[in-house]
Amino acid sequence: MEVCGISNVTLRDFSCEQSLLSRPDGSSSFMQGDTSVLAGVYGPAEVKVSKEIYDRATLEVLIQPKVGLPSVKERSQEQNVRETCEASLLLSLHPRSSLTLVLQVLHDDGSLLSCFLNAACMALMDAGLPMSCLFCGVTCAIAVDGEIITDPTAAQEKECRALLTFAIDSKKCRVMMSSTKGSFSVQELQQCIAISQKASEKIFQFYRDSVQRRYSKNL
Amino acid sequence: MISALKDKVGQILVPGDEFCCGAEDTISLTAHVQPEKVVCGPGLMRSADRLQVCKSGVLRHKEPNMFWMDSQQKRYVPTKGDAVIGIVTSKSGDIFKVDVGGSEQASLSYLAFEGATKRNRPNVQVGDLVFAHFIVANKDMEPELACIDGSGRANGMGIFGEGGLLFTVSLGLVRRLLAPHSEIRSDLQQLVPCELLVGINGRVWLKSSSTQRTLIIANLLQCCDTMTAPQRRTGGRSALIDCPSQRWRM
Amino acid sequence: MQIEISPNVFVQRLDGRQTYDYRRIKVSFGADYGCCFVELGETRVMAQVSCELVAPKESRPNEGILFFNIELSPMASPAFEAGRQSELSVKLNRQLERCLRNSKCIDTESLCVVSGEKVWQIRVDVHLLNHDGNLMDAASIAAITALSHFRRPDVSSVGEEITVFSPEERDPIPLCIYHMPISVSFSFFQQGTYLLVDPCEREERVMDGLLMIAMNKHREICSIQSSGGIMLLKEQVMRCSKIASVKVSEINELISKALENDKRARKAGERCGYAASLPRGRITALKMDETLVDMTTVMDTAKEIIQEAAVPSEPSSAKHTRAASPVVPAPGVGQVGLGLENSWGLEEDVDEEDEGKGEEEPQMEEQHHERKPRRGVDVVEISDSEEEEVVILHP
Predict the structure, then answer these.
(1) CATH assignment at residue B12
(2) pLDDT below 70 — which residues of chain B?
(3) CA C348, C354, C355 angle in degrees (round to 5)?
(4) Domain for residue B249, yes or no?
(5) Which of A167, B163, C172, C313 is the most buried (most CB within 10 A)?
(6) What residue ranges do the domains of chain A occupy?
(7) Cβ-Cβ contacts under 8 Å, A9 against chain C
(8) Known PANTHER family for this protein (chain C) (predicted)?
(9) What is the distance, to the nearest Å, from the Cα of residue A213 to the centroid of all Cα atoms in its chain?
(10) Does domain A14-218 have CATH number 3.30.230.70?
(11) The complex's ipTM?
(12) Residue B237 structural domain
């Protein structure tokens, strides 16, 4: 099992657009290859009494699948995204208010969870919510022969032995959330984390570039 | 740390960027060191010995040592002293509830108007627009508005809005409109005379000589966020002066 | 909020449109078949068509089933709640059904695979992404475009056996669509004095009534619905239907052009889908090409971490503690914790101290007990027994 060929370590072309919806306070669409997600954020807004928390904002994450109603899979992804967002947002600055993050799948071609995370981060940034750090998602697939593929497509995901998604923070490149499927060795896990950390640098640079572009007209 | 901050003025920063505010590396023993104070505006936070950026945007600076993040956002968060445009949503007893676009409705006492007494109540109806400033606004309390300043004068605040148009723009644009030497404002002044009332909560009320002009200016202002100054000028001129009779679109 | 109406009939709209103007319509397609995005000004809608083999309805054994679902996603407006049927969603759903199912624009009989046993159910999910008025028109354009774009897999039935072919085996088949009904909305103000086509959200908030006419390009009215409770004159309805026929033919042309473009792009093997249609010029949008991640140090980092995190080998741990050996009191029983050195040394010390203090304690306790009766008005009996320090309050 020591054979760990790392050859296919590329991120697909990615693109994003911010503030594309007029209604939400913050919105973004994020594309990794063909995988596309649309995110909208409302808040800090009025909160329902039943959901009110006295010392911090209530964060609600909703994932809308393309076909049909949200199922258990979406619920678990919602939880992953919510916990990541809660870790990076400074929710205590807006007590007794609500933040709603809605994520709409536009096309699933693999690495969907990481695309959710990236779209969410962009939308939260667009909404101007206070955050302690940025975060991004990176998905790694381990093929049957031990090869590690970053940002896999749906076809690659189907063939792989294990699928790992990490949320990485921008400050110290630490792992904020991990979601794994399939079996892998400790060594492979560490390799995947190290790869994700490396890949995250590219994504954070992309975040910075897109913010730079956005403010280019009023610097 | 201040020099590190000053280096970054006018540049893009994103959440997670940090400045170390520890002591300087070399401490002069002879010179008298005046401890320097830094005032952190929105988007900057202190945590332990570090200064953290918590909003993405452009770092701005004002002498002597005032720093803040300038960001484009839509949602307003009440801050004490801000002058805002609100919409009266309900009357309950002695207070009016006012929607200012924040997470909670603000309250406005009927006594907080110029010349108002228990006998002489101000004439305020649900749906009225009110220009007021925050006298209480913090994260743990219900925000409270007043239409009088410290000396009991209205100072331009109160109920307003006969026949104008209210619309919303981004908070970044509002700040650019209210800046002491605002380019957008001076461009607008040259273009067409109009009455403009700007609330820092992103609401703008506008009135000019004709409805059509009002609408053109409103549309122009709403587009300003993503326009450069030359674009703005040519756009405004073509819409208002060059072809006022033709169909215009932004 | 403020619709300004000048004394003459000339109406000025907030966004500078004329009375009968539609906002800009943009139709684009997703990467897979049956996915359509529609932008109507700021209003945004996405429709996705999917299919499934199901048993037909008993009353109609030879017909496929059409199912419409409009999702009022909370993304579109903060007033929309997720997973709740609101009045608006029922109204929109019903209108879409009447516009597309009851108009028989889709041949449902061709969707039958085995009569009475297996038919295709075509499901149309319409997601509202941004609400800036006139959701119905946007939804109807998105739904019919997605249906025309959709391809279902080919099937063959030999005897009892039904084979569904994958797109690689046999080309998927488009639906049989006879005509394309499109809904056109008219809003009325001041009891029908003023009429506007394609109301935006601010106009919708102050309108008195709404008339929705669904029509195809052959000028056949497929459904008509008036809401808001205003009295319309015959002439007004006639005029609206005339306007609708013009608008419908314009929109129809746009849709067929978009479909053709997409078909050509797909044939040429160009990349299509949402990601490909990203507007490049905007300053809010940015694209980055495929990037290689620098992997030179990754292997070393991973190895280092593993070595650091490796379970300490025995010799090193033996320095300060005896090697913990599990105790097996009886065959088949595993026990942890007995016979091991307690690492909670501090806790034990505290315990000893407590015992030491414990000798002085009783006196204090007695004093404590004596004080209590005075406070209470009721008689208090102090139990003599030391084991139970219970204070009984007699009623």
Answers:
(1) 2.40.50.100
(2) 1, 21-35, 240-250
(3) 95
(4) no
(5) A167
(6) 14-218
(7) 292-293, 295
(8) EXOSOME COMPLEX COMPONENT RRP45, EXOSOME COMPLEX EXONUCLEASE RIBOSOMAL RNA PROCESSING PROTEIN
(9) 21
(10) yes
(11) 0.90
(12) 165-242
**Looking at the domain assignment, is residue B226 inside a domain?**
yes
Helical spans, DSSP H, in chain C: 87-100, 135-149, 201-206, 234-267, 298-309, 314-317, 345-358, 361-375
- B194 & B228 share domain: yes
Count chain B–chain C contacts defined by CB atoms under 8 A.
Answer: 29
> Looking at chain C, which residue has its C-alpha nearest residue A216?
C283
Query: Is C12 part of the contact surface with chain B (CB cutoff 8 Å)?
Result: yes
How many structural domains does chain C have? 1
Smallest CA–CA distance, residue B153 to chain C, in Å, is 30
User: Alpha carbon of A59 to those of A69, A89, C261, C368: distances in Å?
Assistant: 21, 10, 42, 50
pTM of this prediction? 0.85
- Give residue C201's domain range: 25-274
- Segment among A141-155, C132-146, C362-376 with least mean pLDDT: C362-376
Q: Is A169 on the interface with B (CB under 8 A)?
A: yes
| CB spacing of C284 vs B211 below 8 angstroms | no
Q: What is the CATH number of the domain that holds C157?
A: 3.30.230.70
Chain B: residue whose CA lies nearest to C281: B226
Model confidence at A43: pLDDT above 90: no
Contact residues on chain C for B226, CB-CB shorter than 8 A:
282-284
B79 and chain A in contact, CB less than 8 A: no
Neighbours of chain C (3+ CB pairs under 8 A): A, B
Interface test mutation site (partner A, options B12, B141, B223, max chain A beta carbons within 10 A): B12
| 8 Å CB contact between C102 and C223 | yes
Paired strand residues for C187: C196, C210
